[in-house]
Design a protein that fits this description.
With 339 residues, this protein is mainly beta. The chain contains 2 helices and 29 strands. A 5-stranded antiparallel beta sheet has the order 1-2-29-28-27, with no helix packed on it. It is globular. The two termini are 31 Å apart.
Length: 339
């Protein structure tokens, strides 16, 4: 078994800068769904509970929550966000607020079963919604008021699955968005140029940050890997024979695989891979490139990367399950040189 502690597992080189990668085993985790971080703690939704670990010594500080319908209880998949002053948890039919140390503050019932909400300003939210117009289904991002009523639509695109239409597996991830101060940041996932849209508190588009983009061809090998994942994934394999004739693939990867906004910086993960590593680009808020580094996170066909990493303090925190030790681990990689 691996001993407790922090282990240096590799050295990443870029432009002469040496980045040390740490691996932290967390044996107290059972089945974590995601990871969040702030300057002091790591947060993990784990079953129907949330576990808080110190970023100083990586010891478990607190576990809170259990299965149920009451306050401090959860009944389904949770999205946990470490906000600057509190923890915000989006779970089926409600949102909950806890202190950064895990003490209950309040909860609010939501009319929408699960809108993937994030707080925005003092009372509002930003979240997903779906619209059907004729035979076309769209997914959209809205500003919601304190009662979860839609105030303004910020963005929409066709859902990647349409009735009897083509299915492009590369487009299956939803648009990402982040809220901060009085701004909303979201990616134009259907853009061919790579752009992060910026909206003010009224939902008015105030900026569009162009991202460095190198067109990456989607090859026959990529098609094979995508189909193999579809046939292997427990959530999709039962549908393969029904939909295989509807599968289509793009000529090129989208510009942005994922993005993250933290500490007045934009962090991009692209689809570019080199020597088994994934490309990350760090930009300032106007799109000026600050750094570029390759880190081994996950190949493009691994969808689990959508929820198993976060960025905070200029570092990437990535959650993995070590099959040899049967322990969950957090891999920590610096992304910028001044952290």
């Amino acid at each position: 078994m691996m001993k407790k502690g922090i282990f240096i597992i590799g050295i990443l080189l870029w432009a002469g800068v040496v980045f040390a990668a740490e691996v932290v085993p967390l044996p107290q985790l059972m089945a974590p769904d995601a990871i969040q971080a702030n300057k002091d703690n790591l947060y993990f939704p784990d079953g129907f509970s949330v576990k808080i670990f110190s970023l100083t010594d990586f010891k478990l500080k607190k576990t809170f929550g259990k299965r149920g319908e009451g306050p401090k209880e959860f009944n389904g998949f949770m999205l946990v966000y470490a906000m600057p002053e509190y923890i915000f948890i989006n779970s089926p039919s409600k949102v909950s607020y806890f202190t950064l140390e895990g003490d209950f503050i309040r909860e609010k019932r939501a009319k929408h079963p699960f809108g993937r909400f994030k707080t925005f300003g003092e009372t509002d939210f930003v979240g997903y919604g779906y619209i059907n117009e004729g035979k076309t289904r769209y997914e959209a991002i809205y500003i919601y008021d304190s009662d979860f009523k839609r105030v303004k639509e910020l963005y929409r695109r066709k859902h990647f699955v349409q009735k009897d239409g083509d299915i492009n597996l590369i487009e299956e991830r939803p648009p990402f968005f982040y809220t901060g101060k009085d701004r909303v940041y979201l990616d134009g996932i259907d853009s061919t140029v790579g752009v992060i849209y910026v909206f003010d508190k009224n939902g008015t588009k105030v900026d569009a940050v162009r991202c460095p983009f190198e067109p990456i061809p989607f090859t026959g090998e990529h098609i094979k890997k995508s189909i193999d994942r579809f046939k292997r994934d427990p959530d999709t394999r039962q549908y393969y024979e029904q939909v295989k004739h509807r599968l289509v693939f793009p000529d090129y990867f989208p510009p942005i695989r994922m993005f993250h906004v933290d500490d007045d910086k934009i962090y991009l993960m692209t689809y570019k891979e080199k020597d088994g590593k994934n490309e990350f680009i760090v930009l300032d808020m106007k799109g000026k490139e600050l750094n570029r580094v390759f880190i081994p996170v996950a190949p493009f066909e691994e969808a689990t990367v959508l929820i198993t990493y976060t960025i905070c303090n200029g570092k990437l925190y990535y959650l993995t399950d070590n099959e040899e030790t049967e322990q969950w681990e957090v891999h920590i990689h610096p992304l910028i040189t001044n952290h």
